[in-house]
Give the backbone structure.
Amino acid sequence: MGEVREREVVSQRVGKGIRPALGDVYGRAELALRAELGHTSIADVLRETLLVS
C-alpha cells in the first residue's frame, strides 16, 4: 500500500471513530450548557447583546 493510500485509510478510520469517541465529551458539554442556561434569563442575554453593540 502506498504512503498516500495508507494515510487515507488512517484518516477514514479516525473520521468514523471520532463521533463515538467524543460522545461522552459532548454529553458532558451539553449538561454544562443546560446548567448555565438554567441560570440565564432572556433579560441577561439582551443586556449582554446591548453592551456589545
